[in-house]
Amino acid sequence: MNIIDLKNQLKRRVGMLAVIVVLLSIPAIAMQFTNEVDWKTGDFIVMGIMLILTFLLIEVSIRAIKNRSIRTMMIILFVVLFLLTWAELGVGIFGTPFAGN
Q: pTM to 2 decimals?
């Protein structure tokens, strides 16, 4: 592995961490202005874990899958699974026992 690859990986990881911080700060800021957003500490922890796992899966896909179309499909799959899980936890679109309402 050369220096350029290491720099690209570091940039990608820093970018992913920045996205996680920004996404988690949105509800934290919204809670200051409205009572409609009511996240508890556990909500932030669960969302942080979900975001980290999603970004780790994306990182592994980027590294391991050389075929660009398959890699893109896997990344889309991970993002869709994340969004469906988030929606289920938030409003219970599938009615599973771990739904948010």
A: 0.85
Residue 70 token pair: 């398959």
DSSP string covering 60-93: HHHHH---HHHHHHHHHHHHHHHHHHHHHHHH-S
Tokens representing residue 24 in the block: 């988690």
Taking only the tens place, the pLDDT of each residue in 9-66 is: 889 889 999 999 999 999 999 999 999 989 999 999 999 999 999 999 999 999 899 9
Whether the Cβ atoms of residue 86 and residue 50 lie closer than 8 Å to each other = yes
Tell me, what amino acid is at 37? V
Alpha-carbon distance of 82 to 88, in angstroms, equals 10
